[in-house]
Input
Amino acid sequence: MDNPLTPRSNDLGLTAAAKANKPIANQDAKSFFAQLQGFWVTLITMFKKVNTVQYPEVKEPTAERFHGRHQLNRYDDGLEKCIGCELCAWACPADAILVEGESNTEEERYSPGERYGKVYQINYLRCIFCGLCIEACPTRALTMTNEYELADDTRAKVIFEKEDLLAPLRAGQLQPPHPMEAGKTHIDYYLGNIKGGLNG
Amino acid sequence: MTPEQALLETEAPVEMITVVIDGFEVTVPKGTLVIRAAEKLGIQIPRFCDHPLLEPVGACRQCLVDIEINGRAFPKPQASCTIPVENNMIVKTQLTSPVAEKAQAGIMEFLLINHPLDCPVCDKGGECPLQNQAMSTGRPESRYEGVKRTFEKPIAISSQVLLDRERCVLCARCTRFSEQIAGDPFITLNDRGALQQVGIYENDPFESYYSGNTVQICPVGALTGTSYRFRARPFDLVSIDSACEHCASGCAMRTDIRRGKTLRRLAGDDSSVNEEWNCDKGRWAFKYLTSRERVTTPMIRGADGELHEASWPEAIAFAAVGLKGKRAGVLVGGRATVEDAYGYSKFARVALGTNDIDFRARPHSDEETSFLSGIALGLTTSYKDIDKADQVVLLGFEPEEESPIVFLRIYKQVRKRALAVLSDAPFASRGSVKLSAKLVTEISEISGLTSKSVILVGERLSEKTGALSSAVALAEKSGAKLAWIPRRAGERGAIASGAISTLLPGGRPVSDASARVDVAAAWSVDSLPSNPGRTTSEILLALSVKNLDAVVIGGVDPLDISNSALSQLLNSFVLSLEITHSAITAVADVVLPVAAVVEKSGSFQDWQGSSRVFEKAIADSLSRSDVRILSMLADEMGTPINLPTVAATAREISALGKWDGSAVKFESARSVKDLATGDKLNLTSWRLLLDLGTLQDGEANLAGTARTASAHISNSRAEKLGVKAGELISISTDFGSLELPVEISEMSDNEIWVPRNSIGSQVIAHLGFVSGQVSVAKA
Ligand code: SF4
Ligand code: SF4
Ligand code: SF4
Ligand code: SF4
Ligand code: FES
Output
């Protein structure tokens, strides 16, 4: 077989070509159009919108429901929603989450109610972004953001601690520990019956 | 026991009854409850209040089944946990009867109406019978839309037990336990109807030594332990069967580990020992190894007088130089495992060539040495004998304080059949009151014992000269069964391992040449030292006057022995094998770190002499058991003891076996009467279960339930001193003094009792002895 332009298909295949004993792509006009047809996709694409993104200089938003890094949410006054129940850790098929609970006290309160998550870690070398933890969370404390830049150069750096996962404080939110809103109970928090923030 | 006796002992054959449950026949002894008979077939009827060791109450109604006797059906489903089987009974459980199934689902719905269902913040979540049975027998959907009853949550019923009344299903397991098993009716069911709740008596705090069991048997998360609160979920934990290291009762335990740390301990299940219970010390005192500064590496005292970290080879070499060819003794402490004690025993004999070894880190006497070497190992009395006893005599022994499971066993019989209990205590302690014990002042006053009576002798009896001899004589005369119950878990095993000057392992007397040959052959050494060895106090004395040059100490608190023990060590070479830094490591020349119980395998011998084996709970711990370190050290000294692992040691112990020759003769001592005269009083003391013991370090919640120290004196003595109950008196000796509030008890005018090692009452440190004559005055 001296001609390099041999078709891949078996019908027009090598055996057929060999039987006919002539080169498959010859130099006549018909074959010129056949070649042009071959380049058609390339040609069209040259006039289409460019899809390549110059990552990391340019970053594109992900799909709205993309499963990215987790976030531990807060109530409107800044108290944490996580109650340290470990249900997320229990649900996780990859054993990526570690939670240790602790008691809230009147002097040191991180979440409404009796219990808060003292230690909260997610190991992103284990996480498969399935989102089962989000479904398990009884307080909607745990949700996922769209952030996907989670690579790093040591194992320790990809185990995210509670500080790394907690939602940033918005205006009007106060860094815990602080007491619950006056006169409100953990149930009011759960039902959303609190004012937006401690001061107003 | 001979076969004839065994035949006599067996009770009359029990009548057997055959019932049909869900179409299957099962034959069980008369009196068996339907729920148990079903269990025998593998049929599980849901339940909350039913507990095999508590009397049935039928409080929760979850176990309803359909029952028919002689063809006549009960009109309504019946509680299977309260009805004993009968002939011709046909039972249909939820598996075959739609009526039973519907009844159970209905009860579950009722239970859940007022249940908070706050599983995410509930410690029971994941191991909760209510969760499980709501899934297996409840309705899939709740129909209740009203407002649930709420209570303030949680309330602390003691510093270590929290009660969340919303979650309570009113099964009365906790209240029945307190009353029927522990004899502390401090929690009860108050109010009625929807407001019914578990509560405490207003004035009496829930100061039970057994409160942890109520946490363990509560079928929901209503009772939880403060220390374990929010610590973990069941799936985080690795559970290991273990044995309790706190006393000689010998409880089977379960240790739950999360990431290399003990998070909780539960009572294990051993019907011949602790049944399913344990005491709060065993359950909650496990933080001692993290509360003090841990010895993590070997350390050598340098020329600057400070301890410096060293490598293992360095430290071992240094220790070997300090010990080789020197006159050295060994102090083991009563907490060593059988294997470790054996290691110390073999090390003393083979590497140090001495019989100067003693495990008694406490006051002791020659009379006791003789008792331990001649009699203690031959005692076969067991918990079963207590179950069958016609009388129990307590000598120098407060079971509730010093061996709490022995107390539970006696209390069980006291409650069941008013078993008679005698005690030689100077006043009726709370334990004695619960046992309705009759107090006697002299052992010679005791009469009327039979071969079914049991005499329980505590380690404190040796503090009164001649008392042990009287106890032995009493047992011989009456044929009563004798038992020696030390306080610490390792003492009986230490005797069996030969960690005492007079005995080689297996109870072989040092004084017996053939016993020495026996052991020397097993150990492949030419000969063993035959000269009589020293006891703890003699070793300390010899060290202080330079008759000994060096000492190996493992796990001893010098203040348990005497107030001069520490200073007696100062002139010698001290090798300390320790878990945490202590008074001994502060003066030691070499400190070698050893493993705590959770980090090693091994075994203890309980007071009955039966082996309580435990495995390493923290799998990847690098700490080594004492015996492995001693073996390395012996190698370095050129006198190997060949005990490279705990397993190898256990094999060697069992290969060596017990001594079948004659035991040493017990040398009885004459009792000395030293009655207090004038204004002096006779001081007696014992340790309370929860006190300042080092193994209870770091557990503030547990310490919160310790009884407060007070001095007990008689009413007329208090009048003479001009003090009322609660006022302070000062108790003094030539050595020092202490001040305690007075508690008036019915006791002799010449007696005073104080706790031995409680807050404000450390008798050895403050008065210089544990019993003797003291002056008392109003403070
Ligand atoms: S997303 Fe899935 S794998 Fe990742 S932490 Fe959650 S449950 Fe685990
Ligand atoms: S994130 Fe949610 S599920 Fe996880 S521990 Fe916190 S509250 Fe529980
Ligand atoms: S006791 Fe606790 S775990 Fe059990 S059902 Fe109630 S709240 Fe849930
Ligand atoms: S506290 Fe627990 S054990 Fe006690 S009655 Fe309530 S549910 Fe039963
Ligand atoms: S288990 Fe039978 S009534 Fe509670």
Observations:
- The longest strand of chain B covers residues 737-744.
- The pocket of iron/sulfur cluster (ligand 3) is lined by residues B 115, 117-119, 122, 124-125, 128, 130-131, 167, 220-221 (CB under 6 Å).
- The first helix of chain B runs from residue 3 to 9.
- The CA atoms of residues 727 and 741 of chain B lie 5 Å apart.
